[in-house]
Amino acid sequence: MLQYQVILPMPHRKQIKFINSRAPRKIIRAGRRAGKTVGMAILAVLAFREGKRVLYGAPTTDQVERFWAEVTRALAEPIAAGLFRKNETRHTIDVDDKHDQRIRAKTCWNADTLRGDYADLLILDEWQLMDENAWELVGAPMLLDNNGDAVFVYTPPSLHSRSVSKARDPQHAAKMFKRAEADESGRWAAFHFTSHENPYISRDALSDLTHDMTSLAYRMEIEAEDIDEAPGALWTREIIDAHRVMKAPDLDWIVVGVDPSATSTGDECGIVTVGRKGKELYVLSDNSLQGSPAVWARAVCDAYHYWEADQVVAESNQGGEMVELTIHTADPSIPVRLVHASRGKQPRAEPVSAHYEHGHVHHIGNFPALENELCLWLPGDASPNRLDALVWAARMLGVGTDSRVSVRSLDDYKKDKEELTEKEAVKRQEEHLVGLLEGDEAWN
């Protein structure tokens, strides 16, 4: 009988706990470099040796390659002996075409990219960056044939990592972890460990890594804490929730705020639509997305027409006049006002957050990604795109003016001079609002 040696790294204490767990659903929250990928590779190889079909999914090629390097290193001897087949292109290791025994690693970030397979053990790594549908619509059903197991692995996402997330709710992994902790049936198990608990990484390297991190990023990405609200943030969930409504009244003025992105692979383009009635503001939609300028310009135009908006306001620091040209290439009829960020992020944001505190801003429904940005951003950090788009829209609607400055409704202008056409009245109000936006009064 042929014998072969499988060489697995020695798991550390925290890895042993989840490797040995018999719970069919496991969720692991761990810090960067804490040993998540190595632990998943050990778990996958052990399942494979038991004849199981293992599917590992992660949202990036780099993450898949790290897992793949670990499992191929562990199984190098039997692969070289011809006992197992290795396909580098498909990232598969199997016995033959007749048996289900297999390990496969693939990139996936939503339901569509996970489709077309089944498994006894499904591992979803960097789960916090995936669309929840990857599990709900595809992952769970693919385990039905053999009543398979599932493992979810994540590091709490800082604002920086959230910019590449495909999650509809950036808190979905944290919410799953809480449910797993509360489970008493034995079906779920939750595990948590920090970067410091990996004895195999250099203490000096870890110190260097954390030296330039903010305290919030350190708590999330090294200590692996789930945080949904940063101490010192200008917005709080309590205030947002207290004034949330499900429907907006007839609005005087609607603006689509845009914080542009220059490339399709860079940060998301912030696209937030806000309406005004009296002094009350209503956040109508968040259509922010990652895509080429042509893609986000189309999304801006779609939001403008859907809400029958009066104006698009866009920051010109990123791309200058090209921003207006890009939007007008998609639809030349849309009025675009470019604004230049000459002051810091905090002075722009503080009047808007104060408007929230006074109960004058209402979210129409829930906007998880936007609300996460609001509640996790700290003054002094680079501001995220949804937040910037919201701030530009709110300021275009007059937020930030002091009591000496009036922000007039369209009806006010019509009453002043009955012969004004509606188009002229709109233009007059636009000029007034832009004057406030770009003048010193708006910074008091």
Brief digest:
With 444 residues, the protein is of the alpha/beta class. 39% of the residues lie in helices and 17% in strands.
Q: Domain count, please report it.
A: 2
CATH architecture of the largest domain: 3-Layer(aba) Sandwich
What is the gyration radius calculated from CA atoms? 26 Å
CATH topology call of the largest domain: Rossmann fold
Helix tally equals: 18
Q: What is the end-to-end distance?
A: 83 Å
Strand order of the largest sheet: 3-4-5-2-6-7-1-8
Instruction: Catalogue the unreliable spans.
Output: 402-417, 438-444
**Biggest sheet layout:** 8 strands, mixed
Helix content: 25-40%
Beta-strand content estimate: 15-25%
Shape: elongated
Name the CATH superfamily classification of the largest domain: P-loop containing nucleotide triphosphate hydrolases
The average pLDDT value, as a whole number, equals 86
The first-level CATH class name of the largest domain: Alpha Beta
Number of strands: 14
| Overall SS class | alpha/beta
